[in-house]
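Hi all, posting the design record for the shared folder.

TITLE: backbone redesign
STEP: 1 of 1
STRUCTURE INPUT:
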């Protein structure tokens, strides 16, 4: 008689085979995404990290830091880069692990670690002071930069940020692809497929209560669904609450002009627990609460965000 395979062993072999096929498919899709969306800017080698950035316009430096899961093309699609470049020297980075920037695994890429990297990039670019705008997770990096290098940051524009620790059960699920071994398997196999299925629902949530604007069609979704970028996004989800704990007592130390902007319909963060509270903690800050607007205010209220940049610039000029 021919011995029959144990049903569990057969199932394990079949599962491993299916996962291997998914990994190959996702690898090909990631490579296609990179070929279809080549770098649009230049590269800096900073501290062993190959950092991709775009520079446009002339004038006082203005740095834009994107949110979790995003990249330079988010600001590009919003129209904010072109708008700001009429007056400012606009510098936009792909933060580590996003777009075409590296994210070495020997570093825990906290906001403070990213701030140190960006400071080094500034030195290479000849930037001695700048207005810094951070959106969502990028706002945490902007705050870290301002706290660590206060002479470098002339002023802050903080859009749709998360600043104070709260109970967030969703963070556990979002962080899974960053786990050692198990997370590596997930991000190369199942996570990209699940992310594609969930993409329309995620867009509805982050843009709500507004609809997704047609200009967002220029955002390269397939770049965001690569295993490497899924890992970077998961790692930042895992760091979100711990970093808020770390910074929650330091916001009063921000002495430069600070303009906070947030949509009162934000479905990702509670702006009363975040932006409103930050406004109370930073005495010289101003806060613009945008009615009927959600998390992606640089897309749905681009002019207001541009006005916030001008407000910081004018306040700084008045202070001398």
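Okay, here is what came back for every position:
SEQUENCE:
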């Amino acid at each position: 008689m021919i011995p029959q395979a144990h049903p569990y062993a057969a199932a394990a072999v079949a599962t491993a085979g299916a996962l291997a096929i998914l990994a190959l498919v996702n690898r090909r899709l990631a490579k296609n995404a990179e070929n279809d969306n080549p770098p649009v800017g230049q590269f800096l080698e900073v501290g062993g990290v190959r950092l991709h950035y775009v520079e446009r316009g002339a004038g006082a430096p203005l740095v834009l830091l994107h949110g979790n899961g995003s990249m330079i093309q988010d600001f590009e699609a919003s129209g904010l880069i072109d708008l700001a470049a009429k007056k400012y020297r606009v510098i936009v980075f792909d933060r580590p692990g996003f777009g075409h920037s590296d994210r070495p695994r020997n570093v825990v890429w906290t906001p403070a670690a990213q701030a140190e990297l960006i400071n080094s990039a500034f030195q290479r670019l000849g930037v001695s002071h700048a207005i810094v705008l951070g959106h969502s997770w990028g706002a945490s990096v902007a705050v870290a930069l301002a706290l660590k290098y206060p002479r470098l940051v002339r002023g802050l524009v903080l859009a749709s940020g998360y600043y104070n620790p709260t109970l967030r059960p969703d963070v556990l699920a979002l962080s899974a692809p960053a786990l050692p071994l198990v997370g590596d398997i997930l991000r190369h196999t199942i996570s990209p497929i699940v992310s594609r299925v969930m993409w329309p629902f995620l867009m509805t949530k982050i843009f709500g209560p507004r609809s997704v604007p047609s200009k967002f069609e220029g955002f390269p979704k397939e770049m965001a669904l690569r295993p490497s970028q899924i890992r970077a996004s998961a790692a930042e989800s895992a760091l979100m609450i711990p970093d808020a704990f770390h910074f929650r007592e330091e916001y009063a130390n921000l002495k430069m002009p600070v303009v906070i902007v947030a949509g009162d319909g934000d479905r990702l963060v509670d702006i009363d627990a975040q932006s409103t509270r930050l406004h109370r903690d930073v005495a010289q800050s101003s806060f613009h609460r945008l009615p009927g607007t959600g998390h992606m205010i640089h897309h749905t209220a681009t002019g207001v965000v541009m006005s916030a940049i001008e407000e910081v610039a004018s306040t700084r000029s008045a202070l001398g």
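COMMENT: The chain has a mean pLDDT of 94.
Let me know if anyone wants the other runs.
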